[in-house]
Design brief:
257 residues
């Protein structure tokens, strides 16, 4: 899976300025290397972990399949919420009766709690996408990984009014055995993807739709974005993709837990 270098630049300007977080560039790692067996002991949640109801641990392996079985499709939306694009994405999802998993950046959730609540009220699920969207997470210390994940979990939960994220998606797929175990111990299933629509690069609506149609046989989890720039192509692509999937007998589900 590819990492999105352009996203580092956008969040480096917006989030880094707010938090003083320096996002360091590093070479890409191989997704499959992060998805293998984990040998280290389970990490314990630190003091920054989200307060509230008791947590039930979940599977540590990276989820790709759908709870709807072979006919299922998982729509996943990353990097928001965004006041311009998230409402438009929600409108399209509602129009076609589709549910989605929103992988939210902690600072975005904190800045737009009204949108987090709208996502939850519409029946969608939440996913922890870290505080500052650092795609070099797998090169950083365990303390840094813990801070990024647990602070985002807290921000998202507080913004939602108490609804916890059910998944953890490492930015750019930069999972580590440690981050996967920590996420699972917090009740957040590590979440991958099968189809990278590359909508973040704004290749054109036709190209986004074609990527989904070509790569959907690879698996049911589709990756889109609702923040980080002009997402009009994403909205238009969803408006075309969702009814086609319904015509094909596909069901809109959630990633397995």
């Amino acid at each position: 899976m590819t990492r999105h270098g352009a996203k580092r630049g956008w969040y480096g300007k917006v989030v880094g300025a707010a938090l003083g977080v320096t996002v360091l560039a590093a070479g890409a790692s191989v997704w499959t290397a992060q998805a293998g067996a984990v040998g280290s002991p389970s990490p314990q949640a630190a003091a920054s972990a989200t307060p509230g109801s008791e947590v039930t641990p979940v599977e540590v392996t990276i989820a790709h399949s759908s709870d709807k079985g072979e006919s299922g499709v998982n729509i996943t939306i990353d990097d928001g919420p965004d006041p311009v694009w998230t409402p438009q994405v929600l409108d399209v999802l509602r129009e076609y009766g589709a549910k989605a998993t929103f992988c939210m950046v902690g600072t975005q959730a904190k800045a737009h709690p009204d949108l987090v609540k709208k996502v939850v009220a519409a029946g969608h699920r939440l996913c922890d996408h870290t505080v500052s969207h650092d795609t070099t997470m797998d090169t950083k210390s365990q303390a840094y990984q813990s801070q990024q994940m647990l602070d985002a979990e807290r921000m998202i939960t507080e913004a939602s009014g108490g609804v916890r994220p059910m998944y953890y998606r490492a930015p750019g797929g930069a999972f580590t055995p440690y981050s996967r175990k920590l996420a699972a111990s917090r009740g957040m299933r590590p979440l991958g993807w099968n189809v990278d629509t590359k909508d973040f690069e704004r290749p054109g609506t036709d190209a986004i739709v074609a990527t989904v149609e070509r790569e959907l046989p690879n698996g049911p989890t589709l990756l889109f974005h609702d923040a980080g720039g002009d997402r009009s192509q994403t909205v238009d692509a969803l408006r075309r993709i969702l009814p086609r999937l319904k015509e094909q007998g596909r069901s809109f589900g959630f990633p397995v837990r």
